[in-house]
Design goal:
This protein has 84 residues and is mostly helical. The chain is 60% helix and 0% strand. The chain is built from four helices and no strands. The longest helix has 29 residues. The termini are far apart.
């Protein structure tokens, strides 16, 4: 009975249940996630630079692999399999 009286007497003006704000802790959590994201992106870019572009393969006659790949059934060679 006292709970019902407390709910009825509390108006929307003094209710703190509906006025919840994130505050300083929420800002610090979001800022920390943002800073961690910046460092993770920098590290990822560094790792991608280490990989470099794949080497270009050429045939013995100096031709491109695109022509010989269709004739040999995909161009999967032992040399290419070792590299991957």
């Amino acid at each position: 009975m006292t709970f019902l009286a407390a709910v009825l007497s509390s108006g929307t003006d003094n209710s703190t249940l509906n006025n919840v704000e994130p505050g300083l802790l929420g800002f610090l959590v979001v800022a920390g996630i943002g800073i961690a994201l910046v460092f993770l992106l920098r590290s990822m870019n560094k790792q991608f630079r280490k990989l470099g572009p794949p080497p270009q393969e050429t045939d013995a006659d100096g031709g491109d692999d695109a022509d010989s790949g269709a004739a040999t059934g995909g161009g999967a060679t032992a040399e290419g399999a070792k590299r991957r």
